[in-house]
Amino acid sequence: MNEQEILQQKLASLRIEHRDLDDVIARIGEQAPYDQLQLQRLKKRKLALKDQITRLESRLLPDIIA
Question: What contacts 53, CB < 8 A, 6 or more positions away?
Answer without folding.
Answer: 11, 14, 15, 18
